[in-house]
Amino acid sequence: MSLALWLAAPMIGLVLSLFAAGGGMIAVPLLSFGMGMPLKQAIATSLIIVACVSLIALLQKKRWRLIEWQLHRFFAMGGMVGGFAGASLGLYLPDSVQATVFAVLVLIVAWWMHSDRMKQITTHAKTTPCNCRYSMLAGLLTGLVTGLLGVGGGFLIVPLLLMLGVANYQSAVAHSLVLIVSSSLVAALRYADNLDIAWQPTLLIVALAAVGAWLGSLIAGKYSSERLQKGFSLVLTIMAGWVLFRAFNDL
């Protein structure tokens, strides 16, 4: 791996630790365009990396103590079904279509992270009884995105959890990390049936991303979430432009 990749890999863990989202949005371009992996192999590898790093970030501060397991159970069931379905669809889509959808999604997330609507959802969250049907449907949607594009889906999971009855942002982050692990692993297994996974670079990136997750836990208490989200939105916008440029340049 080049020096640039050594520096970029910890960013996967850093953003997952801070936002429970965004790791796959860095991992897929890093693997595909930075390391030259075919897109579908990069997506499958990204799913493994994101699942491993999400588990590490969850264990760092014993965040599982914040989880409401009834809500999690139904969301997770939908997420695993959606992850399998999204991966199955992704195996048959042309790479150019998959890359374009990925870039458009990253741009939407960049706007979403910086929007007033996200702030309102976070501010007005309150504890409510679990609506299991909606939880399962929400899991299905986020799992579909996870399997199709190789992203953990935390940018959708966190606000959906806040709307479904999780009372605060930190608890939603904890739930999101657990949900990312289950849906990402199911989707990765679906891809692995049809692709060869390059385990040596994958494990190295997981180790570097784990360092980033540790750094994220240190940074989280020193800067406001609003300031961090603005910086992350800028990074995502640049990343989306790079993905679109490379996708159409390779046609």
Written overview of the protein:
- The chain is mostly helical and 251 residues long.
- The chain has one domain (3-249).
- Helices cover 79% and strands 0% of the residues.
- The protein has eleven helices and no strands.
- The protein has helices at 3-19, 23-34, 39-60, 69-90, 95-113, 116-123, 132-149, 154-164, 169-192, 199-219, 225-249.
- Helix 1 (3-19) packs across helix 10 (199-219).
- The two termini are 26 Å apart.
- The model has no long low-confidence stretch (mean pLDDT 77).
Q: What layout of secondary structure does this protein have?
A:
Blueprint (H helix, E strand, L loop, with lengths): L2 H17 L3 H12 L4 H22 L8 H22 L4 H19 L2 H8 L8 H18 L4 H11 L4 H24 L6 H21 L5 H25 L2
Helix pairs in contact: 1-2, 1-3, 1-10, 2-3, 2-11, 3-9, 3-10, 4-7, 4-9, 5-11, 7-8, 7-9, 8-9
Summarize this structure as a short list of keywords or feature phrases.
single chain, 251 residues, mainly alpha, 11 helices, 79% helix, 0% strand
The poorly predicted ranges are none
Strand content: under 5%
Report the order of strands and helices: HHHHHHHHHHH
Tally of helical runs: 11
The radius of gyration computed from the alpha-carbon positions, rounded to a whole number of angstroms, is 17 Å
Oligomer: single chain
Distance between the termini: 26 Å
Q: Supply the number of structural domains.
A: 1
Kindly report the average pLDDT value. Answer: 77
Reported for the largest beta sheet, the result is: none
